[in-house]
Each structure stands twice: as structure tokens, then as C-alpha cells.
Design goal:
The complex is a heterodimer of chains A (390) and B (125). With 390 residues, chain A is of the alpha+beta class. Chain A has helices at 2-11, 19-53, 72-78, 82-85, 90-93, 100-107, 149-184, 193-223, 236-246, 248-253, 274-290, 336-341, 349-359; strands at residues 57-62, 67-70, 114-120, 123-134, 137-147, 232-234, 257-261, 270-272, 297-304, 308-315, 363-369, 373-381. Chain B has a 5-stranded parallel sheet, with helices on both faces. The longest helix of chain B has 13 residues, at 15-27. The radius of gyration of chain B is 13 Å and the shape is globular.
């Protein structure tokens, strides 16, 4: 088709034009070109003004990893002048102390990321990178520096507040607990059957409140990054059995068919923060029992490979709806069917457990089908390479 | 109260806890003395020579850790067994109490007076 058209054009007879007409036409064209050029310059200036006045710091690295653009905000954050750094490659930029951590991040294989970097006490930046493309062609990488100092400060204030409030709440809650216990034990005189019933319910409510406060305190400790304490070598199977022992009554009460399958091979002792691991196991087991109807089944099994141990709890409970599965381990989240089954619950148990396991270098996960049941598991390596600060 | 009743000094600032524990312990035949802070606690310790001290950690004027430090330096008080009763059960604190010679530790929200009594009996019968 294209060829045909061209052929037609050349064959066509051109109209006759006078030199004056041609001159005027040329002037018109030149005017248009000039206008287009001015528009382009205007556009470029506008883009530059946006980049220069952008409230976030911006850096652009070209295909050869050379810095080709830096805006004033980025200059300020990184204490450099554009002239000193533009045109330099990543390896040259390491010389600038504040650029060093960023260069380090860019040198890694996964170059698209979002990270927090603390440059000084009062300057915490969130660094985001984006690959810049024109069509299929990759032009380079844009680095955005966003000041999150204030957000971090507010986050810390929130954590401090929760921690303080929780500590303060524990004092009156324990006084209430002790009073109710003594009333129930008859230490303060005889009580009627009806009084006993009310007091027992109050006692249980108070216990739930204490549990919630403890969960909140655990979360604040996780957020402050000081969580694991003493790692001592223990037999994992013994720890699991101890936790199961605490649930014997509940299992019996709900007539749950419970089974425990221990390790099928000899497993060495593992270094654990025993109290924390017990908490994680309790949370898993508690969920399985709580969300499994009467006469359902719960199976706890332990497996071991050469590298790690694996703990899993299988239940025939309500399961987790598919559309909510990816949010299950997030703070305060509770699945809709879980709320319907059991209105009480802080939504913190699995979040806490995940943090405990990951602090031990392990992983958590689950498989679940709504209405059929779930299997929750975690693994812990014998030797953790990278562990959270103790 | 018989003359050979064992003496317990309760150092605790929370009034309700004091009332409850005192009642529970006295019902078991112990003689109970009360101090509302660490300074008063040390004074009463010297005066009454208790068989056991139940010690809170966070108190006005002088806290439980300082009380234990002072006890360690005092020949007359050094050997009195201490059970810590605290609102918090942070492992760091537990370790510190153990280093200072505390015999036992209990967290108020996790225990109740009956269990306190059991721990007391374990120490002094």
C-alpha cells in the first residue's frame, strides 16, 4: 500500500508556484519551527522547575550508572553540590560519606526498592527507586529521597505511649485480679452461688484484659526492636509438649480429637528464647482449638531436616477466606469468619508469632480452605545466620 | 498470734495489694509488717528482723533493686530471703533480681495471692 501511494505522489503533477508564494510558505514553516522550539524550551524549563522545586530529593542515574541529575533538596540531604557529583559513576560517588549508603543500595542486584536510611539523628529518609523507561528503552534509574523523620518520631511516640499505658494498666488490673481471686476463694467470707457466677465472669473478663495488655506490650517491644532475650539450647519437642499440656483442659472441653506426632529422627538441641517460642506455639495451638468446632480434630506434628525443624498444627476449623489470606499475619487483622465465630481477639497473636519466629531466623506460613480447615506451620533453622538483635 | 509465728515484711506501695496479701498471710498464721517504700522497708527490716521479705520493684523514694543492693551490703540483712513481687516480668529485670540474690520472682498479673502463699511456704514453711 505504502509503495503505491508514493508512486502516485511522484506521478502527480505538482501545482505551479511563484517564487514569492514559495518564499512566504517557507517563512511560515520557519515560524512554525521556531514556535515548536520555543515550546520545547518552555516545556524543558517547566520540567526542570518541577524537578528543582520538588519537595523530595531526586537523583537520576543514566544507563552507565552515572549521576546525571540532582535537585537542590537532594543536594541538601546529602551535603553535596551538583557540580561535584554530576557525571560521576557509582564507584566515584562512594567518596561522599552521605552518598555511600545509597550507592551501596544501588549496587545490589535488586535495584528497585524502598528503604529507610538514617543519615543523622534528625534526618531519616525513605529511599525509593524507579526504573525510568521510554517505550522499551531503559533510560536509567530515578532515586527519590523522602524525609520521614516526622513520621518516625510520631511512630516512636505512639509506641512509647502504648508501652506506658499498658504498664500503667497492669497495676490496677492485678489488684482487681487479686481481689476477685480472694473473693472467689472465700478468703473474704462466704459468697452465694449467684455471686460466685458473676465474680467468675468478671474474673475471666479481667484475665482477657490482662492478655490484651500483654499482647500490646509484646507488640511495642517488637516495634522497638528489642525482643529476643536469652537464647538457651533446649529440646524443642519438650517445649512443645509443655505448651500442649496447658491446653489439655480446653481440648477435653471441646471434645477435640487431638493428636501429637513427635520427631521421627533424633534432633539436636536448638538455641531458643524459650518463653517467646512458647508464646508462638501457644498462639498457633490456641487458634487451632479456638476456631475448630466441637468434636473437630487438631494435629500437632514435628518434622526435621538436616537444616531445620518444622512445627505444624493442622485443624478441621473454619479456615481462612482466600481473599483475606495475605493479610493474616498483619497487626490487628482478624478474618471476617473468625470475628463471627469469636468476637474476642486482639488480632495480634499471629503478628507476634511471626516476629518471634523470624527473629529466630525461621519462617511462618499456612495453607487453608474456608470451611474445611487450616494448617499453620513454622520452621526454625538449627543455626540461624541472621537473627534479630538479642 | 503465737510467739513463734514467722515474720514477713511486705514492702509494697499499692494499698489494695497490701490489704489483700496481709489478710491472706495473716490467715495462714504469719506475722505481717508493712512498709510503703524502700526506705521504710530497710528501716523496718532492721527493727523487725523478718524471716522473709516480699518486695515490690517500682516504689516511691526507693525502689526494690536499691533495697536489695542495700541489703547485700548489710551483714544483718544479707541473709534474709527475698521474693520479688512486680508488675513487670522483663527478663532483664529478672536477671538483675537474681544477681542481687532474690530467691523468687512473681509477676502480679500472672499470679494470685494463693500462689504467693505457696512461694512463701516454699521459702520459710
Amino acid at each position: 500500500m505504502k509503495g503505491n501511494l508514493q508512486k502516485e505522489k511522484t506521478d502527480e503533477k505538482l501545482p505551479e508556484v511563484t517564487p514569492r508564494e514559495a518564499y512566504l510558505a517557507l517563512l511560515n514553516i520557519l515560524e512554525d519551527v521556531e514556535e515548536a522550539r520555543l515550546r520545547a524550551v518552555e516545556e524543558r524549563n517547566k520540567t526542570l522547575a518541577i524537578i528543582t522545586n520538588f519537595t523530595d530529593g531526586l537523583l537520576f542515574f543514566d544507563k552507565e550508572n552515572k549521576l546525571s541529575l540532582i535537585n537542590p533538596v537532594a543536594e541538601k540531604y546529602l551535603s553535596v553540590k551538583g557540580m561535584e557529583v554530576i557525571g560521576k559513576s557509582l564507584s566515584d560517588l562512594v567518596e561522599f560519606p552521605r552518598l555511600k549508603p545509597i550507592v551501596g543500595l544501588l549496587k545490589k542486584t535488586t535495584r528497585i526498592f524502598r528503604k529507610e536510611i538514617k543519615l543523622e539523628e534528625n534526618l531519616i529518609l525513605e529511599i525509593t527507586t524507579a526504573s525510568v523507561k521510554r517505550g522499551e528503552e531503559e533510560l536509567g534509574i530515578l532515586v527519590v529521597l523522602h524525609d520521614i523523620t516526622r513520621e518516625k518520631l510520631i511512630e516512636k511516640m505512639k509506641t512509647d505511649f502504648v508501652s506506658l499505658a499498658a504498664h500503667q494498666l497492669r497495676t490496677p488490673l492485678s489488684a482487681i485480679k487479686w481481689t476477685l481471686r480472694m473473693l472467689l476463694d472465700g478468703d473474704l467470707g462466704k459468697i452465694t452461688k449467684e455471686q460466685r457466677e458473676f465474680l467468675e465472669k468478671t474474673y475471666n473478663s479481667n484475665e482477657r484484659m490482662i492478655g490484651l495488655i500483654n499482647d500490646l506490650l509484646n507488640v511495642t517491644r517488637i516495634e522497638e526492636g528489642r525482643y529476643l532475650y536469652k537464647l538457651t539450647p533446649v529440646s524443642f519437642e519438650d517445649v512443645v509438649k509443655e505448651v500442649i499440656e496447658n491446653y489439655k483442659d480446653q481440648i477435653k472441653k471441646k471434645k477435640i480429637k487431638f493428636k501429637f506426632i513427635g520427631f521421627s529422627r533424633k534432633v539436636p538441641k536448638i538455641k531458643l528464647d524459650v518463653e517467646k517460642i512458647k508464646l508462638a506455639i501457644s498462639n498457633f495451638l490456641d487458634n487451632a482449638i479456638r476456631y475448630t468446632p466441637e468434636r473437630g480434630k487438631v494435629i500437632v506434628s514435628l518434622q526435621a531436616t538436616d537444616k531445620e525443624i518444622r512445627f505444624s498444627v493442622e485443624d478441621s476449623g473454619i479456615g481462612v477466606p482466600k481473599d483475606q489470606q495475605n493479610r493474616l499475619f498483619t497487626k490487628f487483622f482478624r478474618a471476617a469468619n473468625a470475628i463471627r465465630t469469636e468476637t474476642e481477639g486482639s488480632g495480634l497473636g499471629l503478628f507476634i508469632s511471626k516476629n518471634i519466629i523470624e527473629a529466630h531466623g525461621g519462617k511462618v506460613g499456612f495453607k487453608s480452605e474456608e470451611g474445611k480447615g487450616s494448617t499453620f506451620y513454622f520452621t526454625i533453622p538449627y543455626k540461624a545466620k541472621k537473627r534479630m538483635k538479642e | 498470734m503465737s510467739n513463734n509465728a514467722k515474720k514477713i515484711l511486705l514492702v509494697e506501695d499499692e494499698e489494695l495489694i497490701v490489704n489483700l496479701l496481709q489478710r491472706k498471710l495473716e490467715a495462714e498464721g504469719y506475722e505481717v509488717f508493712v512498709a510503703r517504700d524502700g526506705i521504710e522497708g530497710l528501716e523496718k527490716m532492721k527493727k523487725t528482723k523478718p524471716d522473709l521479705v516480699l518486695l515490690d520493684i517500682i516504689m516511691p523514694r526507693m525502689g526494690g533493686f536499691e533495697v536489695m543492693e542495700a541489703m547485700k551490703k548489710d551483714k544483718g540483712l544479707r541473709d534474709i530471703p527475698v521474693i520479688v513481687i512486680s508488675n513487670s516480668g522483663q527478663p532483664v529485670e529478672l536477671d538483675r533480681a537474681r544477681q542481687l540474690g532474690a530467691r523468687d520472682w512473681l509477676i502480679k498479673t500472672e499470679f494470685d495471692p494463693k500462689e504467693v502463699l505457696a512461694k512463701v511456704k516454699k521459702q520459710i514453711g
